[in-house]
Write a structure and sequence with these properties.
- By secondary structure, the protein is mainly β.
- The chain is 11% helix and 45% strand.
- The strands form seven sheets. The chain has a 24-stranded parallel beta sheet that branches.
- Helix 2 packs antiparallel against helix 3.
- It is elongated.
- The relative contact order is 0.05.
Length: 634
Amino acid sequence: MKITTAPLAAALVGTEALPIVQAGQTRRLFVATLLQSASAAGSTAGNVAAKTQADLAESARSAAAAAADRAQLGATTALLNGHLYATVNAGLAATAEGQPFAVRGTGDVYATAYLKAAGAPELVGTFPSKAALDRLGRVIVADPAADNAIAINAALADPAVGTVHLPAGNIRVDTGIHVPSGKHLKGAGRGLTRLIRTGNVNDGVSIRTVPGAIGVRISDFDYVANDSIQGIWMRQATFFEVERVNMYNAHYNFWAQEYSRLGAFRDCGSYNANVHCEATQAYDITFDTIDSGDGAGNNPSGVEAVWHPLLGSRRITFRNCTHTGKGIPFLIVGNDINGDPLGGLIDDIRYENCRAVMTENKFAFHVFVYNGQIGRIYFDGCAVNNEVAGVLGLITKGNIRMRDCEIATGGVEGFEVQPDASLVAVNTDVEVKYSADLNKSGGLYGPYNNVRMIGGSVKVTPPGVQFTPVRGGAYASPDAQFINVSPLNVLTLGRVGRVVFPEYTSPPTGDTRVAGYGQSQAAQFHAALNHVYRVTFRGNVRSNTGANVGLYLDASSGLPDALTYGDWRIEKADGTMASYPTHAVAVDIGSPNQVRRFEIDITIVGKDASVPFMLQGSNQTLLAGAELTVERIA
């Protein structure tokens, strides 16, 4: 079969194979193996040493493939050392029929291989020169007794080298690695190539881009730092990619800083860091599929944060990230202006499907400023479990939007949203888990009118504790659900939505404010002055003793006079529904444990006071499943 002499259609990548015929047998020679051989040998003909190339292959490949590589290297060495000629005619004259020979090349061609067939040269292929190999990549030979960062930096600084290949195994580094424009630092894979940093020199750097670098790539290895230095540091870098890197024991493990832009960290791991993923005055950066955790758990700086944009960063996206351990998962800080043309504005920060399990008592969400500005922050499909936390979130600045999130908290305090900020939670489910003091009151959304709960739910475990889901001027839509919340707490304050009352099998310890257990008030909500509310209240009331059952508005509030429309019905003994005035509703029961259904539809003009729904007496119980819906319509 004839092989064309046309130029290559594309650059070599190392996976191509050349057919080599020796002693009547055809063997495959992988270009990657050849590249390693020629890179060590240089361009001088006849200097290819079989042992040196075998050692190179051993360091660059796994032990399982080394034996096959050595066989191919031996055939290549024999060909280039013993059959390299100045011209084709000289090779034909000196070569037996059916045997290979090689002719010395020029430029990017180190040699051209032929097979003597019927007295004529049959082209087999070409061997690239050292210059051509360097453009494909240079393999670092690890020296366990030396600072290999010196050789790595020299290769990266060589203008002729595009990719620096790190072999499998542990590679000692004493100093930082600096990556210039257009270079790719590539290992053999996570768990295979491990850069191990000694404590001999503290220059503050693990791996950092040369300031102003463009088109840097870093991939496929582990870096084990010594706690006192930065990790993978993209400083003033543009169009960078960091992929499949596990970073251990640094201060900031993955860091885009100082006007870095248009870059991505993908499919990486971050462990035992002070900050796992940080963007400082950076733009258009993506952190995608980053897993993080405490690792050894002995970082001397502690754990500050997980996903942390600050100082004028804009258009930063954290996507499909996971974290288990210490630190504030979502920390956004407007901490400086630093010459930023927008006054240090942090804006368009997006968290998409990021999930965290917290193991220490810190905020899950913390958004605040020193002297900068914060704009839009989005959380979409995120989940947080901070059952060990005391306060779920503190938001002092910014417009926060949550959608389809799941949050579990052990704290009695939820989101504290300050007047200069806003929070809109859409279809977000929050479970509040009380682990100790059931009598300690708390709340979730509020306390100002800059908080809106649209759909979603709030569930309290165990049922009946003194917890107010929506406080102050906060608003919840009619389709918002409140589960296992004490009836007197759920609508105590706020522009609120719908609650489904829980079932009480016994009074919660120390809590006497549950309807049916020594308390005649069933539920209440706060109606702001001159605002109009549409109210529906439906459910069942049980007479515990057989006395009359009733449900009414407390006349002492003065609110019956503000009733603009009312339809108030309670079931009679024959099953029919009877309408009654709102100030006194009573149905004769006659025997204990009888249940009557009630249906209330009213419209009320608020007088800046609570609207209390009262039971006829403390010997009645509002049964589980009752629904109260309040909607402010004007």
